[in-house]
What we know:
The chain is of the alpha/beta class. The protein has 14 helices and 9 strands. α1 crosses α14 (386-394) and α8 (232-248) packs parallel to α10. Residues 316-324 have low confidence and may be disordered. The structure holds iron/sulfur cluster and zinc ion. Zinc ion (ZN) binds at residues 337-338, 340-341, 367, 369-370.
Amino acid sequence: MIEKDFSRALELIDANLSQIRKKVSSRDFDPNKVAEIEVNDFYYEGKTVPRMMVVLRATGCQHYSDHQGCSMCGHFEGTTSTPVTVESYLEQWQSVLDGVIEDKNGTNFNLNDFPILCIYNLGSFLNPKEIPPEAGRSIFSSLNNYPGIKKVIIESRAEYVNPESLKNIRDVYRGTIEVGIGLESKNYTIRELCHHKNMPDLNEFTRSIKCLHDYAFKALAYVNQKPPFLTEKEAIIDASETSIYAFEQGVDAVSIEPTSIQSNSLTDLLTKRDVYRVPWLWSVIEVVRGIYDHFGNDHKMDLRIGGYFDETVLSGSQGVAPGVKRNEIFPYTTSGNCPDCNPRIIEAIKEFNRTYNPEILYSQKKCQHCYPQWEKEITQEEKRTIPQRIINILDIT
Ligand code: SF4
Ligand SMILES: [Zn+2]
């Protein structure tokens, strides 16, 4: 029965995602222009430093084309159906090296001023079908001319981390490279059903960590907080336990990713049906507390809080599809409390990311408007199994 429920739940998630993805309209972006350039602060070796995030205009994550992608992810919207050639990737990259923002409201910049550089492709940089190895090599090779860059961060699903994909880059660039891998949850049912991750074997994750270290890369684990179908409390426990697990497996850093709502994702559909709420920021603080309580407050760990909290967009307009005001991957709702305390808690989260001092989070005054509601919410229990919940919510035929 349990297995039957699991299969039925997975079938329903597949079917719903498939319907949702079909609604995405035009994805014909200029393959010669980057999707986005953003700047924010980052904590690195005891200091707050500026970070630049470049989002390449790419063809997107293979998990989308193969299995409709993850339930909370709407990155697909920012990818182009137009094939992106090696030449196009390099033309995009040249515009970054030139530091010229075409958008008239944008600011020109110099990569050397950014000790942390993220190069994202809304998918897996290490998948040769997404970023041709030749393009990856050229991009990394060019970074040798920028001694101001201290760490480069890319992202990849675990299955594309292998000696060949790592050597391709390592052979041309000796600097620090961190690879962010979506672990999301250590729990099989949560990862495979709630996240729709398609990483059934956790050994894939641990293998990728070891492989990264073998080639002197750093490993970053992304842990999504509150996929659909979990209670607020379950989501806190899952994100804390998963982060602890990731550190114990030897990752160099963990980024907690509280769910934001991007258009045309399963979380978007469920939010509109009023059966999902993004995680509370009070809950994000509890996840951090759970991790620090486990390792001890004096433990020096690289723990970040991700999510979309008002980065400075240098060149958003390059990423805006015709007729769309905001960047197409920008969520319309981020995790939050109430309008009264959101600005204060978001500022505290940013300050935590700049300092890695959890006391900043713990010392936040309880909000008289929403804290009691949150306290009530975390006592709510759910007796149904996760597959049963999914069947009840999605099986509306
Ligand atoms: S979260 Fe990552 S792995 Fe999942 S669909 Fe989005 S880009 Fe792909
Ligand atoms: Zn509040």
